[in-house]
Amino acid sequence: MADDGMLLNFELGDGPLTSQVKFKGGRWRDRVKAQRSAKQQHNGPSSTPPTRDPTRPAKRPRTDDGDSHRYTKIPRTGDEAPKAPSHAMKTGQISSSLFTSNPTAVTDFDQPTVEEAEPAKPSNAPLSEEAENFQALGLSRRVAQHLATKLEMKAPTAIQKNTVPQLIKEDSDAFLQAETGSGKTLAYLLPIVHRIMALSLNEDGTPKDTKVHRNSGLFAIILAPTRELCKQIAVVLEKVLRCAPWLVCTTVIGGESKKSEKARIRKGVNILIATPGRLADHLDNTKVLNVGTVRWLVLDEGDRMMEMGFEDDIRTIVGKIRADKLLKENPDGVVLDGVLPSRRVTVLCSATMKMNVQKLGEISLEDAIHITASKSEMDKDAEGSTEAAFAAPSQLKQACIVVPAKLRLVTLIALLKSTFARKGSVMKAIIFISCADSVDFHYELLKDTKTPERPEKPTEESTKQQRNPHTDTTVAPAAYVTSPANPTVILHKLHGSLAQPVRSATLNAFSTCKDPAVLITTDISSRGLDVPAVDLVIEYDPAFAVPDHVHRIGRTARAGRPGKAVLFLLPGCEEGYTTILPAATPIAPQLYESTLQKGLASTVNLPTTTTSTAAPETTETKQTWTSRAEALQLHLEQRLLATPGFVPEDMEEAPKPKDKNKGKWSKQQQQSKGKPKTEPVNPLLNAGRQAFRSHIRAYATHVREERVYFDITQLHLGHMAKAFALREPPGGIGGGVARRAHKPSGSAGEKKGKTSGGGGGGKRDDDDGDGVGQVDEEAAKRMRMKMKMMMNAASEFNIG
Ligand SMILES: Nc1ncnc2c1ncn2[C@@H]1O[C@H](COP(=O)(O)OP(=O)(O)OP(=O)(O)O)[C@@H](O)[C@H]1O
């Protein structure tokens, strides 16, 4: 792991930087670029950023010459400081230059990105009303009218068009695979509701003699991996059931006492939405939960449930339901067969295809039909349909920005600033970060430290959100990224380490926020979450596996709406990652220079805090985006260094001694080794250090197949520290990170509870290779064959 960060800490002078740096080592090309970059700063901003050719494909990472092609190295002799010019800041602070010694992209982009003139036709949008309507799919007029008038859904999406008639007419199992945001939830809910309603309504909508009510039996169980998703499904179902108010749904998802869940079940429920663990518990312990009438079992986000370690729970649930004799009529004597399916139907839903979906299919499906947006016959042309389902929505514009590590933080701020520069252009943005510690840190760093003076009156909604005690530490006005057009931008954070009420309240605050809003989050928000008006997804840290990337960017461009996703990559081997990403349209390169120039075109509103001696702005620094970037970075670093608080003894780890694989620790780190553990340290500095450590550990958890692009030995710790506003990398990262054994996230047998991204790794492979438990072995074999066929079609993305 390259670690010469300390050698790059140059001082800044009062005036603009001079180009006196003598660059040594590395390739001549890198040295020339670094010299040019330094000169550029000396001469002020260039009106146009450097140009590259976006049409040229990204080069594969070079692995034969170590990291010499990636970084301009300044050779060190022992612990000697670099021979670099020093410039003392007025404040006496020391900071390195952001724009020197950066590795250059191996991809040559000679032209800045040109936005596509013609947006692609949306691939997950509702079909045209003239061509399709819900009634024509076999739904009753009552349901179709309710959808059109109350939910403003006049036409089905493609997956709904293919699924609804199938599940209304046929009683076979189904595997639903369609793009993110294509309406899979309603695709399975509508036929279930339609058929349960048919127990009490004739085809013309007149009531039957038979009365069905909440105590008539539990007819459907829907399983989803997280409480948030269960609640989201329940909200959609409740809206649909307003046209059949005699039917009742409820959730059993934990987060409240089992007693109150039992009480709701006892009162009677027709459709139950549950997390697998909680349902398995109730099946064991809640006598009133009778599954004899259950005709549908839906497994939503099936691959995620497997990843979270719910395999055993699902086996138990499937086994228990199948073991219970199917009742032909309910206890009131209502005949169920004929109206409801005459067998138990399992529906498995997934947007992406992974090995664990195959296993889940074996556990739960029998002779399932594969339904995609383009066709409803699994056996025909499976290859094409699977690949289509795997891609991101076609209208989703994907961009990738190759940013040197030192410039990541200021580029993120610049991107957000330009995003919110115009009123109404972007209302909601999600930033995906690898681990919870890093989410916490970035939230603390980017939030306004005190209530800002708002030129405009805050909206009623935002005022209400501030008052919610559950969101006190997760929702706050943002600093840095506001603009005259958007003086209020609300920052939110969400990860799996937060308490459930806080998670729910934060998500609700983000969904309902009327002001422009940013959600900083881990992969906990990558699946199934349907937040209206998300216009932009920023993958500040790339996903741990390609399917996760598809889910993350799928939080935007839903149901035919436009959306944009920006992926941050480091120069070097990470650039090759774009070649394995499924994209309906080419991933457009976006130059970080352009982003900085655009975002920092005007002065960044640096909040004056008691902890910061904000970077002085000279006449010249006001004029250049490079100087603004430097000033912003300096300001952030100063915030971490000022106003110390006391570090609890257990929070600050002593730096590890020299590790033969990692090179020497810097002089400063060695010095800090002997310091007392109660040395006063700013809590923000602590958070930055912790975030840095967790980030590096999380980096090592990319799936094995993708580690050629995310090679931890290529990470430059000194440069990466800058991305956390740190002057140097902290200790306590651990020497074994790079060599830790990792299981792909798609592998079976991972344990539940690791929902906040790969932070810290720790995923265990404890697959015991059992057969299929209580599931019919023959049926499992047949399903295995079919799923394998589909998996082969998606082999490009197979994991493990
Ligand atoms: N027929 C329709 N017309 C208009 N909007 C629709 C229609 N069907 C679904 N939607 C909307 O599309 C959005 C996405 O639906 P849904 O959450 O079911 O997608 P999904 O396919 O499950 O996505 P993911 O794979 O990301 O979970 C929702 O906001 C939903 O209200």
UniProtKB/TrEMBL annotation:
A UniProt-annotated Pfam family: CTE_SPB4
UniProt keyword annotation of rRNA processing present: yes
UniProt-listed InterPro entries: DEAD/DEAH_box_helicase_dom, Helicase_ATP-bd, Helicase_C-like, P-loop_NTPase, SPB4-like_CTE
Primary site of residence: nucleus
Stretches assigned to the Helicase ATP-binding domain: 165-371
Catalytic activity: ATP + H2O = ADP + phosphate + H(+)
Keywords: ATP-binding, Helicase, Hydrolase, Nucleotide-binding, Nucleus, Ribosome biogenesis, RNA-binding, rRNA processing
Subcellular locations according to the entry: Nucleus, Nucleolus
Keyword Nucleotide-binding: yes
Residue numbers spanned by region Disordered: 1-107, 449-471, 644-683, 733-783
UniProt-recorded Gene Ontology molecular function terms: ATP binding; hydrolase activity; RNA binding; RNA helicase activity
Domain Helicase C-terminal positions: 395-608
Its biological purpose: RNA helicase.
Domain notes: The Q motif is unique to and characteristic of the DEAD box family of RNA helicases and controls ATP binding and hydrolysis.
Protein name: ATP-dependent RNA helicase
